[in-house]
Amino acid sequence: MAGEGRAGTAAPPVRTGSRLRLISATTTTFKSAGPIARLRAFRDRFRYTMGRPLTPYYLILGSTLLLMVLGLVMVFSSSQILVMQRHLPITFFFRKQLIAALLGVVLAVLLARMPAKLQRRLVYPLLICVIGALVLVAIPGIGMEVNGNRNWINLGFFQIQPSEFAKLALVLWGADLLARKQKGKLLDQWKHLLVPLVPGTVLLMLLIMLGGDMGTTMILIAMLFGLLWMVGAPLRLFGATLGIAVVACTALVITVPHRLDRLACVGVTSPPPDSNVDCYQALHGLYAFAAGGPFGSGLGAGVEKWGQLPEAHTDFIFAATGEELGLVGTLSVLGLFAALGYAGIRVALGTKDPFVRYAAGAATTWIMAQAMINLGSALGLLPIAGVPLPLFSYGGSAMLSAMCAIGVLLCFARNTPGAKAALAARSKNSRSRALLARVLPRRRTTARPAPRPARRER
């Protein structure tokens, strides 16, 4: 079926009754149509574009790169005052984040090119390394404490946070475990559905909670329930597990005073009178959004980062973005995360391989849950959990682990049957290959062309 308009522009199919016609933005028919017809044509073109097999791949790649670039800009802008207060170079945090981003790109490319079978072979070595690193963090003298949490190991030139890589380990291990049990038709029994997935996740959460990282624990809980939902756990079992998680989280919040204070700051828009609860950080996050307005105060012109807004380049970078780039900037960040989540869901639904489905769904749950927790904390809708905004906030370990998840998603997106066929057709008919065929000389063969008949002279 032809897919070209008059000017040679690819046009999406539009269904009219039982027939299928083409609309192109360059045709006279489209230009002379009314506004309703143009809106319908735009809607059909959008549906056609989103329905292509390579659309999830390009959405993941494009949204990730845009979030990384915008995040680097905001890290540089929001950390200027902090580096001056600490007498550091003006590009100190920016350079460290740039190095982490470049290393993350290398890891993402390696994982995107790695076959899914090889990824499954790395599951248990990765899980053992993560558990060992979490045990080392809990040992006094090895684990490094920052802001009251013991989550880091100091390697001299770099500080690594093993709890960030526990998310990647749960993605691959949980997907491999459930895929093997589904192949053996064992998921109909609740024992095989929960064991050892739930005990293994609880072990990771306990090791992380030894360092006091409640935010990462919440993300692991969201990933666990995402895996149980995708595998089709019965509603009663799902509800019982959810109830146990709620009770455990409530106990963890009540027993620690500063967590209870953070819970009391949810929804607060002004300093509470006659209260011992300190909502300083949450309130100044809201002040930053209010000062930004529709288009912001300008890049680098934010006021809250001058000491009023703590952690402006890490946990509250979204508030700094709202002040300097305004509503337009914050909606752009939300749109990029929405595109990334949509593409991840498309990858999970577009495959028949159980491992790919579960791993893509768990990785998407990880990125989206962490983003919602961070955004909700900055907006005052959730307690401040201390988790960075994926691909955006300052943090080397968070950037590396998130880019590993992106590499896994890119691998799955480019290996779906439709994407494979599209990539093969594109590489076969690519313009670069045709140009190289014209420029580069062809290999000479032993066969010579037949001589032409002699030309008669008149």
From TrEMBL:
PROSITE patterns: FTSW_RODA_SPOVE. Pathway: Cell wall biogenesis; peptidoglycan biosynthesis. It is an enzyme of class 2 (transferase). It is found in: Cell membrane. Pfam families: FTSW_RODA_SPOVE. The gene is ftsW. The keyword Translocase does not apply. The lineage of its organism: Bacteria, Bacillati, Actinomycetota, Actinomycetes, Kitasatosporales. Belongs to the SEDS family. FtsW subfamily. It is a multi-pass membrane protein. It comes from Kitasatospora cystarginea. The chain crosses the membrane at residues 57-77, 98-116, 122-142, 214-231, 238-256, 325-345, 391-413. Keywords: Cell cycle, Cell division, Cell membrane, Cell shape, Cell wall biogenesis/degradation, Glycosyltransferase, Membrane, Peptidoglycan synthesis, Transferase, Transmembrane, Transmembrane helix. Peptidoglycan polymerase that is essential for cell division. This is Probable peptidoglycan glycosyltransferase FtsW. The keyword Transmembrane helix applies. Its EC number is 2.4.99.28.
